[in-house]
Specification:
heterodimer, A: 5-stranded parallel beta sheet, 5-stranded parallel beta sheet, B: mainly alpha, two-stranded antiparallel ribbon, 5 helices
Chain lengths: 426, 104
Amino acid sequence: MSQIVILGAGTAGTMIANRLRRRYDEAIQRGQTTITVVDQDPRHVYQPGLLFVPFGIYHPDSIVRPRAMQLHSKVCYRQSGIDHIESAARRVVLSDGQSLPYDVLVVATGTRIAPEETEGLQGREWQHSIFDFYTLEGATALRHKLATWRGGRLVVNVVEMPIKCPVAPLEFSFLADWFFTKRGIRDNVTITYATPLDAAFTKPIAAETLGHLLDDKKVELVTEFNVGRVDNERKVLVSWDDREVPFDILVTIPLHQGAEFLKRSPHLVDDNAFVLTNKQTLQSTVESSIFAIGDATNVPASKAGSVAHFEADVLEANIDRYLAGRELLQEFDGHANCFIETGFDKALLIDFNYDTEPLPGRFPLPKLGPMSLLRESRVNHLGKMAFRWMYWNLLLPGREIPGIPTRMPMAGKQRPLAAGLTKETL
Amino acid sequence: MTTMMIAGAALDLDDEGYLTHPEQWTRGIGEEIARGLGITMTDRHWVVCDFMRERYLATGSAPSMRSLGKESGVAIKELYQLFPKGPAKLASKIAGIPKPHGCI
């Protein structure tokens, strides 16, 4: 009997659960295999939609569905908190003290924002002039604030990397420019993007191609800014080296950490409670019966839904191999495929992996596209908006999107040969 | 990727000047790299760099700023005084270990 336990039923957990169900359908029917998924929250939030909630583009209700409904009926769903993992005994202890034994454990508990880790962030101004948009509650509160705000200094600040959806803070800044322009008050608003990175886009080709976007949209960029504390009295962000950024509204992207309960298994995780994971096989580097997927891992890929989708393909195969005692595939290449909403009904698309930075070109087909890489287009924007349907109806059930391979394709990308020269690879 | 002579040794460096082979490092190389960055190494600087290097060699990844502040004995504020602007980046370069992860 194979008992597969999956912790977390968000994007990654749901996808891997449904894929494994399809693979082991017969074995499940015969009672030889069980798949159990544990999650504490009955709501499944379409996280890419959170970006649009503050601007009234999506209503908060429209991005939530019942969690259990996204899992196939042959998957056992346990609604419960998790207390800790006992890796030597191969069992998970739930909040109520009950044990769940496993033959294979998949940690898919994602990443949570930890605003409490930055001094002053959850002080007096929290939810009054300081908001996050990475939670449904935060995005909804910000929506109410922005709806009647007459203008002032809007600051978007990333506390520390890694964060999930690394482009979202930039998208927020672009959408804010669009939002206030539409409302006719853009001249009353200054938008500042303060980041700990040394540039808005850290990869050179993307930086060159997109650098103008911030200027065009009059977003002030403050780099190498590592916030140490928030002064609630003066409404100022103060960095560790005493630089200051004043704000009227602060949109914070706080420190990200793995799920709290993972801190009780320090040998399995890094300093921020992300599971120590082999970047190609997705197996824990510490315990062979444990795997991880999605935002919960420490692999050097972006924390993004598309990454979880591509990981799910590799992980499904490797769980099968592990249970059969076979060698694992070193298949995952860090592939990420992300839309970047730039406002005014346009978006960018970037497609990259561990070794290859975002490159210009066409996607998924050379020449035909229809998406453009590293270039604003309306088709890209339509793609981003259509994605919501694909998420619920194709991706969560564990299906593929036709034409989009797990490993990043080089076809259609313009690879730089030498300074000033490019060649479209076919 | 380039090869550079630092403190009399030929070292492989990546595009940003970090050692691609941490095992090629010596303390003298660290001093030289620091000089190139405009930092004069004191015992306090070395507490940080030694801590980072030990943690990297033991676990395969550099400690986060948070751990550095909590466990090295040097508080975050002091880290910024010792290594202005980017302690994690600068200290890891001097300690001959890879740049800590940043994503897109």
